Amino acid sequence: MPELIWFEWEKCPDGYTIEILEPEFLGVRDERKILSGSSASERAPAWVHKLFQHENFNVYETYFVAKSDRVLRFRPLEGADAAFMELSECWESDSNILQFVDNYGLLLTFPSYKRVADDWSVDEFHEVAGSMTDAVESWQEAKRTGDFDGLIHAFNTSNMFEDPDPETDEEGPPVAALQLQLRRPTGGTGLPILSVVLEDLKSALWLQFAQAVSSSTQLRRCAVCPTWFVYGTGTGRRKSAHYCSDRCRKAAHRRQKSTKTSD
Ligand SMILES: [Zn+2]
């Protein structure tokens, strides 16, 4: 079935910065008094005013702020079969997080769909990326021991990746949000195409993770950039591939040449 999985997303093509929500932006001196009921002060920058246009938002310390109002609609996972590995590796440094977000967009919402203000929070991003790190670690462990039971249970209940509430022992929400859709074929004529449409980037990345876990394809990190890629039979990449793309291969060769000539 061609193109069963369909995922389109949006991002600001000019990139993002990480900004701190200073107490003075909220017109309060005491940080403990920051509540959703407070309002943006005159000194607050435009992005804080935007935040207050939401009826509900939680107050976090740091936020992603788009560098412009421009919006790019795109398919972020085309040619990026293992973007979930990049998510699992990026969260320890702000510059790596920004590289991820500039590349793929925010995890839960996009510029023209501003329902989930919490998604602008860097702290929430850390939470999701940390869960992915745990998941990848338990996958490596399962591959080593051959015992996938723990991983299967954790994935199906999300309770390894998003801690259950200790009081109620409730299991986490489903890992992915998706819909079935019939789409028009390319060109507009012919039979409709059945698609599983992923509703947000976080869901799409969990799907990628599950696909990787359940297939025998191998993953490798590009020798030049942070991109992970699949290789081996049926992937179009040889077992000996070191680079994610022609661009990175050429960059590596140029680098080799210049070190040779400078010797
Ligand atoms: Zn690369």
3D structure, described in words:
The protein has 263 residues and is α+β, with helices and mostly antiparallel strands. The longest helix is centred in the middle third of the chain and has 24 residues. A hairpin with a 6-residue loop joins strand 8 and strand 9. Helix content is 33%, strand content 14%. Zinc ion (ZN) binds next to loops.
Instruction: Give the percentage of residues in beta strands.
Output: 5-15%
Structural class: alpha+beta
Q: Helix tally?
A: 7
Number of strands: 9
Strand arrangement in the largest pleated sheet: 1-7-6
Broad shape: globular
The first-to-last residue Cα distance is 53 Å
**Main β-sheet: number of strands, strand sense, barrel status?**
3 strands, mixed
- Work out the helicity level: 25-40%
Number of domains: 1
Rg calc: 21 Å
Order of helices and strands: EEEHEEHHHHEEHEEH
Q: Kindly state the mean pLDDT as a whole number?
A: 82
The protein's oligomeric status is single chain
Hetero groups in this structure are: zinc ion
The residue ranges in which pLDDT falls below 50 over 5 or more consecutive positions are none
Secondary structure layout plus pairing:
Blueprint: E1 5-6, E2 9-11, E3 16-20, H1 46-51, E4 62-66, E5 72-74, H2 83-90, H3 94-104, H4 122-145, H5 149-157, E6 178-183, E7 193-198, H6 201-213, E8 218-221, E9 228-231, H7 246-262
Parallel strand pairs: 1-7
Antiparallel strand pairs: 2-5, 3-4, 6-7, 8-9
Helix pairs in contact: 2-3, 2-4, 2-6, 4-5, 4-6
The structure holds zinc ion.
